[in-house]
Amino acid sequence: MNNYFITRQPYSVNNRKESKLLVFVNKGLRFLKTGLNIQQQDTSVDMNTVEQRINYYHLLNSVISDNVPGEVVELGCFTGQCAVLFQKVIEQRKSNKQLHLYDSFFATFKHKGSVEDELKKNFERAQLPQPNIHKGGFEETLPAQLPEQIAFVHIDCGFGGDKFQHKAVMLHCFASIYPRMPKGAICVLMDYYDAKENSEGIDINPGVKLAYDEFFADKPEDIVALFGNQYNHAYFRKV
Ligand SMILES: C[S@@+](CC[C@H](N)C(=O)[O-])C[C@H]1O[C@@H](n2cnc3c(N)ncnc32)[C@H](O)[C@@H]1O
Fold this sequence. Notes:
It is a single chain. By secondary structure, this protein is of the alpha/beta class. It has two domains: 11-43, no CATH class; 47-237, 3-Layer(aba) Sandwich (Rossmann fold), CATH 3.40.50.150. It is 37% helix and 14% strand. The chain has nine helices and seven strands. It has helices at residues 11-15, 20-31, 43-46, 50-65, 81-92, 115-125, 138-141, 163-177, 207-215; strands at residues 71-75, 99-103, 132-135, 150-155, 186-190, 224-226, 233-237. It has a seven-stranded mixed beta sheet, with helices on both faces. Helix 4 packs parallel to helix 5 and helix 8 packs across helix 9. The model is unreliable at 9-14 (pLDDT under 50). S-adenosylmethionine (SAM) is lined by residues 47-48, 76-82, 103-107, 137-138, 156-159, 169. S-adenosylmethionine binds at residues 47-48, 76-82, 103-107, 137-138, 156-159, 169.
């Protein structure tokens, strides 16, 4: 597939037998020559929604257009579903920003085999240059292996575990990236859920908001919740 919003055939479609109803509906759509084919996406394995991917596209584009200095960082890259999109934007804009990815690759979700190898293969399949991979726990790699300046950062390190453990990891991420973000830089927080802002979706990783509320209590930045369909996310821009 050659578009910005779908990196590859989602796992859920590859790995799951389609329901009889879906097969029937798709046959009907083919018969009517609509060109449509409905696919079931399961975000527990596909990691993000199309709506979120559209948000990433525009947010990363905006820091490039605003000439915000610094590199592009993702904390929690897994097999690179977001990372491939980030690199596509960098290429399309002919930007000289470098992509830095951080992960211990301990979480496999439903993936079989090496997550790191799959990440590299996804970049090969998309015919993109390989990213800078920083393998290890954030406790070891951050902040030492971060670039001096960060223009755009995506924090996505939820794995459905204990919310206080996750909060502690998020606090370490914030403390590491915040001083390296220049004015205008953007940080996107996967799974940020605020019951007041997000009527849709589920609070899958409550540690994100717990950490944000604590770290940003004395900071001037405002959080902006974005529509992400089944999943939620939000961003702040450095003041
Ligand atoms: C939800 S996945 C990231 C999905 C990814 N952004 C994508 O688009 O495919 C979360 C990742 O965070 C990583 N992670 C969680 N806690 C971590 C930690 N303390 N140090 C390093 N990696 C961590 C996991 O290994 C996992 O790959």
